[in-house]
UniProtKB/TrEMBL annotation:
Designated name of the protein: NAD(P)-dependent dehydrogenase, short-chain alcohol dehydrogenase family
CDD domains to which the protein is assigned, alphabetical: SDR_c
Pfam family, one: adh_short_C2
Species of provenance: Williamsia serinedens
Residues that span the membrane, as ranges: none
SUPFAM superfamilies named among the record's database cross-references: NAD(P)-binding Rossmann-fold domains
Family affiliation: Belongs to the short-chain dehydrogenases/reductases (SDR) family.
Superkingdom of origin: Bacteria
InterPro entries: NAD(P)-bd_dom_sf, Sc_DH/Rdtase_CS, SDR_fam
């Protein structure tokens, strides 16, 4: 039996990170690449993807990094992204469903239902769609690890981003169902972060970051690196090979206070 390279425990594995041109996705792609994985990143804007690739290569100069313009809500784009990720090895070993949208704020009684449908289509249905494509492209035969990026909004009401929270609750439930269905070959877990310092969450903290951070027992907001390191742990079979169907709360201790 060979000795695992502790500095690159994901060497030889292929990873697909959706919505990886910034924020949590970019942080995750950088960490996975630094640990030896071949990483494919999706995003909607070519310029942002080019900048993301440069950032990932700073973290992992010798990494095999691929980018593709893809709309997560498009079945054709999902298929093309998976084909690119699986191109060399004939499979995707790691899938990180990171893409999420939230165009609806405020009371659900005032919510535009078309916008709500779009939230669920991108945040839930497309996550399943990506896994179906990966399963067909080789993961169903060779196995793998999946991490869905959920949210603490899926665990308790925010009263502000209710439709988004409901979609993340569905993603958490989907995670458990998939873990039960796909074991033992494929492990499926989720991470539920609270406020992470990204452009996506900026409206939740930018007006008073210090005040918002003071509500957390650890007295700071999360960072993309916090999430990325947990993703890297969950996809590493040597360290987390008996974890599946779990949603891990990553919130600086906030929900511990009730």
């Amino acid at each position: 039996m060979g000795v695992t390279d502790v500095t690159q425990p994901l060497s030889g594995r292929t990873a697909l990170v959706t919505g990886g041109s910034r924020g949590i996705g970019l942080g995750t792609a950088s960490v996975l690449a630094a640990r030896g994985a071949t990483v494919t990143v999706t995003g909607r804007k070519p310029d942002a993807l080019a900048a993301a690739e440069a950032t990932i290569r700073e973290a992992a100069p010798d990494a095999d990094v691929r980018t593709i313009v893809a709309n997560t809500g498009s079945a054709d784009d999902r298929r093309a992204a998976v084909e690119l990720a699986a191109r060399d090895r004939g499979t995707v070993d790691i899938l990180v469903n990171n893409t999420g949208i939230n165009p609806v704020y405020g009371p659900l009684m005032d919510a535009d239902l078309d916008a709500v449908r779009k939230i669920f289509d991108v945040n839930v249905v497309a996550a399943l769609g990506y896994l179906q494509e990966c399963h067909r492209a080789g993961m169903g035969r060779t196995g793998g690890a999946v991490v869905n990026i959920a949210s603490t909004a899926g665990l308790r009401s925010t009263r502000v981003i209710a439709a988004y929270g409901a979609s993340k609750a569905a993603l958490i439930r989907l995670t458990a169902e998939l873990a039960a269905e796909l074991g033992p070959g494929i492990r499926v877990n989720a991470i539920a972060p609270n406020i992470v310092k990204t452009q996506f969450a900026e409206a939740l903290y930018s007006a008073d970051e210090e005040g918002v951070a003071s509500r957390f027992p650890l007295k700071r907001l999360g960072t993309p690196a916090d999430v990325a390191e947990l993703v890297a742990f969950l996809v590493d079979d040597e360290r987390s090979g008996w974890i599946s169907g779990e949603t891990i709360t990553l919130d600086g201790g906030l929900l511990a206070g009730g």
